[in-house]
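Below is a filled-in request sheet from our internal design queue. Each sheet records the structural input a requester submitted and the sequence that came back. We keep these sheets so that new team members can see what a complete request looks like end to end.

REQUESTER: design group, bay 2
PRIORITY: normal
MODE: inverse folding
CHAIN LENGTH: 365
BACKBONE (tokenized):
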């Protein structure tokens, strides 16, 4: 009878241990609405009063050729809930690589992320300025993506080559963190201001990134990973022809308007006469009526950012209107309404008064 009881207790503990072990399973979170999407999950990690392991004991490696001597673990962060432990990589896992997750007392987990059948690869939708002909002292570009992106090795995926096919060394300002918009679908890419601005040390040593009269090719590699760790749909290539530097500040005195008729919702079109900064032009102009009340409507840019279009929510009235322009609005060379980006202060005869706003008046009839 005693032996039977002992065997029953032994059987009970074996079953209990087996249940605990089986519940300690790895998985990859793939649900789109899960805040841990793209992370490794370990269910019921063996952490308690008798077995004490830290969160950092959950490690993920590139699949090792020698399991006993894996390379350094993937960099990331750990999060814990009541019964789950998560490892989230700093750079999303790549679908082209194989990984192995390890935790003490738990069988190793080898995995290769695979996108769902309905997954649509991220692509570059546009690069601004859209013009092929750019000034020698262009300051910024905006890269637009169809879905959120990751940071990983960003500048390795953006290459500028001259017409001979030689790569331009360090043409861009390598910022950390990167200048993403809120949803990480637009990246602001700066040409190195220290090279663009004359008489600075980097300009003297390395020269300007672009030279007037030359042509270049901007390559953006499809190997750049999106926020889910998958490569872009295809490479992006933009041809660039460089002309003389722009050293004139933009001014509403040079603008022209196509004015709509009263009692219509026909768009108002402002012709800048040059391409302006794509992002700033979308938020720097506001339409007001004679009483100073803001006019509601939708804004769009056209003709390679040389035109600003405003479509009112309500019909135009036969009255005067005013466009208020923030002085921070820039052209492609970073010249704003108050000052040039590259100014020789020694040749400046008198200081220019900074104004917060400029104005463009028109009348609807």
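RETURNED SEQUENCE:
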């Amino acid at each position: 009878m005693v032996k039977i009881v002992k065997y029953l207790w032994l059987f009970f503990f074996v079953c209990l241990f087996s249940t605990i072990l089986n519940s300690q399973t790895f998985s990859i979170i793939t649900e789109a609405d899960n805040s841990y999407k793209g992370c490794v999950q370990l269910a019921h990690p063996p952490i308690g009063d008798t077995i004490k392991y830290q969160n950092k004991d959950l490690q993920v490696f590139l699949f090792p050729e020698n399991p006993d001597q894996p390379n350094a673990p993937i960099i990331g962060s750990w999060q814990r809930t009541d019964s789950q432990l998560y490892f989230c990589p700093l750079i999303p896992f790549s679908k082209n690589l194989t990984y192995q997750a390890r935790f003490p007392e738990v069988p190793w987990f080898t995995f290769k992320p695979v996108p769902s059948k309905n997954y649509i690869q991220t692509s570059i939708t546009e690069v601004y300025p859209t013009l092929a002909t750019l000034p020698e002292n262009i300051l910024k570009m905006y890269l637009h993506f169809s879905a959120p992106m990751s940071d990983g090795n960003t500048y390795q995926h953006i290459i500028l080559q001259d017409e001979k096919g030689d790569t331009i060394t360090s043409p861009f300002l390598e910022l950390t963190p990167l200048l993403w918009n809120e949803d990480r679908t637009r990246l602001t890419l700066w040409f190195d201001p220290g090279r663009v601005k004359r008489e600075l040390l980097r300009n003297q040593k390395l020269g300007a990134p672009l030279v007037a009269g030359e042509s270049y090719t901007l390559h953006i590699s499809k190997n750049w990973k999106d926020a889910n760790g998958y490569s872009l749909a295809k490479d992006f290539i933009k041809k660039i022809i460089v002309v003389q530097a722009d050293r004139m500040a933009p001014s509403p005195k040079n603008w022209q308007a196509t004015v709509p008729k009263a009692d219509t919702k026909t768009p108002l079109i402002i012709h800048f006469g040059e391409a302006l900064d794509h992002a700033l032009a979308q938020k720097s102009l506001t339409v007001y009526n004679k009483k100073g009340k803001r006019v509601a409507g939708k804004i769009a840019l056209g003709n390679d950012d040389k035109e600003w279009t405003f479509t009112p929510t309500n019909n135009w009235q036969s009255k005067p209107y005013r466009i208020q322009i923030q002085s921070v609005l820039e052209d492609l060379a970073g010249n704003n309404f108050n000052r040039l980006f590259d100014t020789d202060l020694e040749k400046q005869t008198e200081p220019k008064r900074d104004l917060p706003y400029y104005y463009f008046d028109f009348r609807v009839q």
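SHEET NOTES:
- The two ends are 107 Å apart (CA to CA).
- Confidence is low (pLDDT under 50) at residues 1-22.
FILED BY: M.R.
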